[in-house]
Each structure stands twice: as C-alpha cells, then as structure tokens.
Design brief:
- The chain has helices at residues 2-11, 15-45, 50-53, 59-96, 109-133, 141-151, 154-171, 178-203, 211-230, 239-246, 252-256, 260-272, 279-309, 317-343, 348-367, 372-376.
- The protein is mainly alpha-helical and 377 residues long.
- The chain has one domain (2-236, 259-345).
- α5 packs antiparallel against α7 (154-171) and α7 packs antiparallel against α8 (178-203).
- The longest helix has 38 residues, at 59-96.
- The radius of gyration is 22 Å and the shape is globular.
- 33% of the residues are buried.
C-alpha cells in the first residue's frame, strides 16, 4: 500500500496545484473587473442611481465609467505585474538551493515557494470580499489586493516552482518524457481556465453578487494549501546529477552570505551562463518570446471584457464566461490529446511557430469582429 501511494505521488504531483490556482485566477478575473466597474459607477453616480442599475442604457455614463475603469484595471495589472518581478527572481534561486534529500517536502524551500502565492492570494481574496461588501471601501483598495498577490510572485513563482519540481522528477526517472509531463502541467492552465471562466460567468451575474465568486476563489486557494502540505514530497535527485545542479551557482562566496543580492546574482548567472551550441543565445530568445507571449495574454485578458461588452458585440458576463471556457477547453484538449501525437511527427520548434500564427490570427479576428459568432470563431 505504501509503495502504491509513493508511486501515485510521483504520477500526480504539482498538476492539481496549478489546476486549482488557475481555476481561482480565471474565476476572479472577470469578477474583479466587474467590481471595479461597480465601484467607479457608485463613486461617480451613487450606489442607488439609475445609471448603476442599468449602465448600458446610459451611453454617456457607460463611456465615462468604462474609461475610468480601464485606467484602474491598468493600475491593478501594473501593480500585480511589477511587484511580482523581484520575488520571482529571488525565490527561484532561493528555492533551487536544496535543503532536503530524504524526499520530504514540508519545510523545504520549494514548498514555501509553492505555498506563498496561495497564502497571499487567500488574503487578497478576503480583502476583495470586504471591498465588495463594504460600500465605504473605495476602488483604490483594489490595488492593495493586487499588491498582496504581487508580493508572492503570483503565477511566476507558482510556475517556476512547479516546473522545477517536474524537472527534478523527470531527471530522477529514466524513460520519463519531460516534455510530455510539462505539457500535461501546462494543460492544467487551460482546464483551470475552462472551469474558472464558466463558473465565473455564472456566479458573477448581478442577482448572485460577486461575493460568492471571491469566496470560491478563496476556497480554491485553501484547497491548494492543504494539498501541498498533505500530498507533495520533494523528488530525490540522484547523486550523478547533483554536480550539474551545483554548477549553476556562481560562487561559493554567495553560498557563505546568502543575501538578497546574491539570489539576484544567481538568477542572472543562470540566464547568462555560457552554454554549448549557442545555448545562451537560444535561452535569451526564449525569454523574449515568453515575455511577448505573456504580454499579449495578460493584455487580452485584461481588456477583453470591456471590449466585448461594447456594441455591436454586447457580451454579458455569463456569455463572456462561456466564450472563454470554450476557448480554454479547446486549448486544453489539444494540448492533452493532440500535442503528444504531434510530438512524434513534428518538431517542437515547428509546433511553437504554428501555434504563434494561430494565436495571431485569432486575435486579429476578434479585433475586427462585429457580432457574436465572429468572436466565437
């Protein structure tokens, strides 16, 4: 029994953490945007005004609220993104200094890096519930909620720790396809998006209120914390591979004085380290491509609700949730079912190029869509 549980722990690892975190993230994304719109309308016209009860019926008020909302959403995204950069750089190096070799997880650095985004997101969700329930809390309190998540590194810290875990796990298991394990973990983003957007569109309808959505967000974070503490164990790295882990540390001087700056130097040293076959140049290109991809993804998620709610598309919150859930479902299905088959016949670089072209085409089609079916197409 103990052997089967240990084997199961090597099969089901960080995937549920990614699934729960991304479900919570995509569930709360339209909710916090709706809360910003509601708060700004209340501040401009009063909480019981006719404009706030049916904003679409008053074009001038609608444009004014949307204009102010877009600025606050920009500030929210900026605070979340900018604050998450330093923790992600520092925590990555800090968590890679392995403290355990017995396969334990509780108390290890990687467990703390996985727990930190969940714990601070739980606190952020509690603050969002308070903002939604207390009329006296203005819209700028939303920036504090974003700051709490940003201080943990957010999705960056979660992903770096999760994929580092999978890299160690596949390094210690001969015959395990690392790309396939990474693809399954990445697919959890889309499965979480499917569940999150679908639940978000349903829970965030005006007659239900946004408190339920924020409470569900907190519930997902709480489940992630319990799962990490109870289930995960650190993979054991074989002795023949430990030298390669140590080689990325820039100097023994940093080991003797592990300051904040030393962790930043470690992160930069890993990126700019000399590698065979122009490996450093390829890594820098991958970083630039990832930056552009994330920039587009965050921008599209941030403005899509405001954009689709305008005429002639006139998306409701529920329709917006259905649209994104279908989109995420298709992406996850392709990554889980089609991607492993394509890997046997097509190179990874070719798949990445085709994927970028399809994403660009989809965004162009959305930009010039004039009705609902074009958006879904």
């Amino acid at each position: 029994m103990a052997i089967s549980v240990a084997r199961l722990r090597r099969i089901v690892t960080v995937e549920p953490v990614i699934l729960l975190y991304m479900t919570a993230l995509f569930l709360v994304t339209p909710a916090y945007q709706q809360l910003i719109i509601s708060k700004i309308c209340s501040e401009q016209y009063g909480p019981a005004s006719a404009e706030c009860k049916d904003l679409a019926a008053y074009p001038e008020a609608h444009q004014s609220v949307q204009r102010s909302s877009s600025m606050v959403i920009l500030l929210y995204t900026s605070v979340l993104s900018v604050l998450s950069i330093p923790p992600a750089m520092l925590l990555g190096s800090w968590s890679d200094q392995r403290q355990r070799s017995d396969g334990g997880f509780l108390g290890s650095r990687r467990s703390l890096v996985l727990l930190l985004p969940c714990i601070l997101s739980l606190a952020s969700g509690g603050l969002l519930i308070a903002i939604a329930m207390v009329d006296q809390l203005g819209v700028l309190w939303m920036l504090m909620a974003a700051g709490l998540v940003g201080l943990s590194g957010g999705t960056s810290s979660l992903f770096l720790s999760s994929f580092s875990y999978l890299a160690d796990l596949t390094a210690s298991n001969e015959g395990v396809n690392r790309t396939l394990r990474m693809a399954v973990a990445e697919a959890m983003v889309f499965v979480g998006g499917t569940i999150g957007f679908l639940l978000g569109g349903y829970l965030e309808e005006p007659d239900r209120g946004m408190v339920i959505a924020f409470s569900s967000f907190c519930g997902c974070q709480l489940l992630s914390i319990v799962y990490i503490l109870v289930w995960l164990r650190d993979p054991i790295i074989p002795a023949r591979l430990t030298s390669s882990y140590g080689s990325i540390n820039p100097s023994s001087e940093d080991d003797a004085s592990p300051s904040i700056l030393s962790h930043a130097r470690r992160s930069l040293a890993v990126v700019f380290k000399e590698r065979p076959d122009r490996g450093r140049f390829k890594l820098l290109l991958l970083i630039v491509c990832t930056f552009i991809n994330n920039l587009v993804a965050v921008g599209e998620t941030t403005i899509s609700l405001l954009y689709l709610s305008y005429e002639p598309r006139n998306f409701s919150t529920q329709l917006y949730g259905i649209f994104h859930s279908i989109r995420m479902l298709l992406l996850g299905a392709v990554l889980l079912l089609v991607f492993p088959l394509l890997l046997k016949r097509v190179s990874e670089q070719t798949l990445a190029k085709v994927s970028a072209l399809f994403c660009s085409a989809a965004l162009f089609l959305m930009a010039f869509s004039t009705n609902t079916w074009m958006v879904f197409l």
